[in-house]
Automatic annotation (TrEMBL):
It comes from Sulfitobacter marinus. Residues 290-515, 560-745 form the Orn/Lys/Arg decarboxylases family 1 pyridoxal-P attachment site domain. Keywords: Aminotransferase, Transferase. The lineage of its organism: Bacteria, Pseudomonadati, Pseudomonadota, Alphaproteobacteria, Rhodobacterales. The keyword Flavoprotein does not apply. This is Arginine decarboxylase. GO terms for molecular function: transaminase activity.
Length: 912
């Protein structure tokens, strides 16, 4: 039986414990020797003891039933025990307990066929009342607990839209553990009698309570503030929940306190019906999906269509003799909901006033933004909207060079002066990491010394990167604001939308960091710290500033934008994305230009099905995102453990750890790996709180060079063609497996089976290989694992596209459009004329974006000088797909005449 440290969350621990208990109890009913029976009894007792630590935090099966199991085991009622444990385990696995009561007695009349959730049709599942649990926090006796639960049960009515059960705990610590353990909890009732301390195992308390502020913060709480403080602390770990405070204190004492997620305060009364109605109303507020509901209602209306879209209402399909297969495949509803109308209860995405506006407001609440906007053509569009709205021609923008190509094209459209930032390289895996904070500060201080800080507009970074590297967002913004107090931040979180719904991950999201920073800047403590640092840093040189953790002035403006590919990590149709805003100057400075940019890039005929899926996807994560993200991370961690622990897999594969992908100087916590075979799982919280960069555990980068196949071959020829496993990203010697909220344990198991089969086939191949075949294999492995081309840094923009040679920014727009005239460009062959020109010392300047896949970002941009390092890297590339490069012609470059003409024009127009 795995220890507690073998699990990253209580969800999987609980599931595995009940499955093991079911197997052990069933074995007790079979004929066995006395010694075997005693051994099985001991196993059952051990499982009961381990479950006793976590079962008090769930409503099903409930502690009375749990204690009943203990009595049956004590009295050797093995048949009854096995039956009851089987019903509980089955109910938990299938979710049957959400729909009906599950009797545990063998003589009860019950149809087990209906236990299985998968056997219900989607229509039948949609008609069942959603189930949740309410946590009641009060130090009560068992009799009082039964009284509380019976009063809650009496309030139920047939017309209630939901069904819920109550869980009662006694202390603040228990309440915090409960909301971190139990994903079914949707509301908390905090009563006056709660206490502070829990009887829970200290190891578990220390591990989980850090997410709510840690034991030190809990110890500081005053008894008279237990209720309000608990509401505030729960808001830190699960802000989507509702809390209701029952208090004996006066209105005056409560007013002005930070009540976190508290929706209503009840003053010393036992009005259970009013509480019941408020609980239902609170959950209903999250369960709303205004645009999806409007679209469903629209599809039911009889209409006559006299506008665009023949497919509207499915008419062009139902009348067809040749495309009936399309109608049969998709079903009627998708066509009944198709329209280009913005009336009939629907709304306009460009000028929303109805259900789309409400849906965006609900999304804003869910993701912690001040404003949220939907996009139906991907995050590439969101990125361009933000850049166009905020960046004026000539503004300097700091951009991580290996960001998504949409940002580079956005710079072209906006006419930005681009200052590219280099990420640290991971040469051995042919991938880049992320941009060190020191590099960002260095560029800002250089621009400040050159008198250009007023031109600096924005910092644009990818969080998290495709490979799973996540910034310390709050720290980056603090230190940058200390140098440039009005700097705008654009965090590309295309792959990170799910992070909002996990307490560990949430702290590193742009919106959460923005809200935290806004609160921090207002405090007297921060102002004192800032003044003290300013006195210390008076007349400090740049090296001192680079080595100091800078504190921003209290007058700093928090201006943060994040873009999210909702469809990549949450439930949404393809191209469904969101743009979140937390900008203190949005209303006064940006709103009009943002509206124009949104109009520029948003279709006048947006897909309503995508909008509806964004609406429903938001509803889902507000109600069950905590559970789904926990399961997603658990699936990835179990994959890591399975590969690391398997002796055959470790011969050919390796899962890259934080120590492999993040240099030691950026890991202040000292954590190198989330999993160790001897010690089990390392709690991620410590490194996610401290380190400059962390690794998203839901992504598993697998080093496959030991197989002799490069990443692209392994992806296409092995995983996809042979086993039907789909992945997105590869590097020269790695493949990336991404879990998501839809990943199942079965999917992980299948992947492990496939990897084992591949490893066995390699073993067999090498056993039968001749000496020359073995040498060939070893050479391929050596080439992939040792003879890797070094990754080039950004060289520089040519002088024709720079204002001066003091700072690094360049005019990418001029270079981009200069190439539109063919007379300004020529082609040089990579292994011929290009190499000869560079060997002769000539300056060669790219006229195009050159984007190899992998790594999937520009290694050259228009106006960039080709360096020897870039040439060597391009010649060493063994990928088949390089956007912007024509193998038949070569690399497109600018002619000397074109560069001289631009340079002369710049000199003549520059001030003396």
């Amino acid at each position: 039986m795995h220890s507690m440290n073998s699990y990253s969350s209580a969800i999987q621990l609980r599931s595995d414990r009940w499955s093991a208990f079911r197997a052990a109890a069933a074995s007790l009913t079979r004929k066995a020797t006395a010694a075997e029976v005693e051994k099985l009894r001991a196993t059952c007792q051990e499982l009961l003891d381990s479950l006793a630590l976590i079962e008090p935090y769930w409503a099903f099966p409930g502690m009375p039933a749990f204690e009943h199991l203990q009595r049956m085991l004590n009295h050797n009622n093995f048949e009854d025990l096995a039956f009851a444990v089987n019903r509980i385990a089955r109910g938990l696995t299938t979710g049957a307990y959400r729909r009906r009561s599950i009797p545990l007695e063998r003589d009860s009349i019950d149809n087990e066929e209906h236990d299985d959730e998968a056997m219900l049709s989607p229509e039948a599942r949609a008609l069942t009342k959603p189930y949740f649990e309410v946590l009641i926090v009060d130090d009560v006796s068992e009799q009082q607990e039964r009284w509380l639960k019976s009063n809650v049960s009496r309030m139920r009515r047939p017309e209630d839209p939901f069904h819920y059960e109550a869980v009662v705990v006694k202390s603040i610590e228990d309440a915090l553990i409960a909301v971190l353990f139990n994903h079914n909890i949707q509301a908390i009732v905090v009563r006056p009698g709660l206490t502070l301390k829990s009887n829970m195992d200290k190891q578990i308390l220390d591990r989980y309570l850090a997410r709510a502020g840690g034991q030190e913060e809990i110890e500081k709480l005053q008894p008279e503030n237990y209720g309000p403080e608990l509401c505030r602390m729960i808001a830190k770990v699960r802000p989507e929940l509702d809390a209701y405070l029952v208090t004996e204190r006066s209105v005056e004492d409560i007013a002005g306190m930070d009540l976190g997620i508290c929706r209503r305060v009840f003053y010393n009364q036992e009005d259970f019906m009013e509480l019941h109605l408020n609980i239902l109303r609170g959950v209903q507020a999250r369960n709303k999906s205004p645009f999806f509901t409007a679209l469903v209602e629209y599809s039911k209306q009889p209409t006559g269509v006299f506008h665009a879209m023949p497919i509207s209402r499915g008419k062009s399909i139902t009348r067809s003799h040749w495309i009936q297969d399309m109608g049969a495949f998709y079903g009627p509803n998708i066509f009944l909901a198709e329209t280009s109308a913005t009336s009939g209860g629907l709304d306009s995405l460009l000028e929303p006033h109805g259900p789309i506006k409400e849906a965006q407001e609900l999304a804003s609440r869910a993701f912690g933004s001040k404003q949220t906007f939907f996009a139906t053509n991907g995050t590439s569009t969101c990125n361009k909207i933000v850049v166009q709205a905020l960046v004026r021609p000539g503004d300097i923008v700091l951009v991580d060079r290996d960001c998504h190509k949409s940002h580079h094209y956005g710079m072209v459209l906006a006419g930005a002066q681009v200052c590219y930032l280099d990420s640290y390289p991971l040469n051995e895996y042919s991938m880049y990491g992320a941009v060190p904070l020191r590099e960002i500060k260095h560029q800002l201080l250089t621009l400040k010394a050159a008198g250009k800080l007023d031109q600096v507009r924005m910092l644009l970074l990818t969080n998290c990167t495709f490979d799973g590297l996540v910034y310390n967002v709050e720290r980056v913004m603090e230190e940058c604001l200390a140098i440039k107090p009005d700097l705008v931040f654009l965090w590309d979180e295309a792959w990170f939308a799910f992070a909002r719904f996990n307490p560990t991950y949430r702290q590193r999201t742009g919106m959460n960091a923005a809200n935290t920073l806004r609160d921090k800047l207002k405090t007297a403590k921060h102002a004192e710290a800032y003044e003290a640092q300013q006195a210390t840093l008076k007349d400090a040189d740049d090296e001192t500033l680079l080595n100091t953790r800078l504190i921003p002035p209290p007058t700093s403006r928090v201006r943060v934008y994040t873009t999210q590919s909702t469809h990549k990590t949450l439930t949404s149709l393809r191209q469904g994305s969101m743009l979140h805003v937390n900008d203190q100057d949005f209303k006064g400075e940006v709103e009009q230009s943002f509206h124009e940019a949104y109009m520029t890039h948003t279709s006048t005929s947006p897909n309503y099905q995508i909008i509806a899926s964004l609406d429903v996807g938001r509803r889902q994560v507000e109600l069950e995102g905590f559970e789904f993200v926990q399961r997603q991370i658990e699936a990835a961690l179990s994959m890591r453990r399975a590969i690391a622990d398997h002796p055959l897999l470790s011969k050919y594969f390796k899962v890259l750890t934080a120590g492999d992908m993040i240099p030691e100087e950026y890991r202040e916590s000292g954590v190198t790996s989330y999993y160790d075979q001897e010690q089990g799982w390392t709690d991620m919280w410590d490194c996610w709180e401290k380190d400059q960069f962390v690794l998203d555990a839901s992504r598993v980068t697998l080093l496959v060079g030991g197989t002799g196949w490069d990443g692209d071959t392994f992806k296409t020829d092995i995983l996809m063609d042979k086993y039907g496993i789909q992945i997105n990203k590869t590097s020269r010697n790695t493949v990336l497996f991404m879990t998501n909220i839809g990943t199942t344990r079965s999917s992980v198991a299948y992947l492990i089976e496939v990897l084992v089969e591949i490893a066995k086939s390699l073993d067999d191949l090498l056993d039968d290989a001749s000496k020359m075949e073995r040498r060939s294999f070893d050479n391929r492995v050596s080439n992939l694992m040792e003879n890797y081309p070094p990754l080039p840094d950004f060289s520089r923009f040519h002088d024709a596209f720079r204002a001066d040679d003091v700072t690094a920014e360049g005019d990418i727009r001029t270079a981009f459009f200069l190439a539109y005239d063919e007379k300004n460009t020529d082609y040089l062959d990579l292994n011929g004329t290009l190499r000869e020109a560079m060997d002769a010392g000539e300056t060669v300047v790219s006229a195009s974006f050159i984007i190899p896949y992998p790594p999937g970002f520009p290694i050259l941009v228009p106006g960039q000088v080709v360096s020897q390092e870039i040439l060597s890297f391009m010649r060493a590339l063994d990928v088949s797909e390089i956007h912007g490069y024509r193998p038949d012609l070569g690399l497109r470059v600018f002619t000397d005449a074109a560069l001289k003409r631009v340079r002369k024009k710049n000199l003549s127009s520059s001030p003396e």
